[in-house]
Amino acid sequence: MSGIDPRGPRFTAAVTVVILAAALVSPNATVSAAIMAAQAACFAIGVFAGIQHTPTGIVFRRFVRPRLTPPAELEDPRPPRFAQAVGLVFATLSLIGYLTGALVLAQVAAGFAVFAALLNAVFGFCLGCEMYLLGLRLTRRPA
Known about the structure:
Blueprint: H1 7-25, H2 29-48, H3 55-64, H4 78-100, H5 103-123, H6 127-139
């Protein structure tokens, strides 16, 4: 397993905040649903192919990372991948809400996703990653 640059998921989170916020502030539920469907597709790519294969992962690798100094160390890609799965769940719930007219569900689910992405983008705190690590600690049996 190869590691990923830890700045990549933060870049992805920053872009995700903008995309999800656009869905939240759009006055048209159809536009919000389309935005949320696109974001859900990006999350799905992150889950099934790895975060480095998402559109933002590719942009980071091709255009941003070459302009940065090399990272001090690489990160295990499994926690960010799990975080993408959590994002996919919330984006899917939001999309379902927009498509069925359950706007409160749509906006609350999108709001949770925005909050989690904002924590990562601004503070470097990946809520989904922490959930992954907590799950590992809870499921490991003592020797």
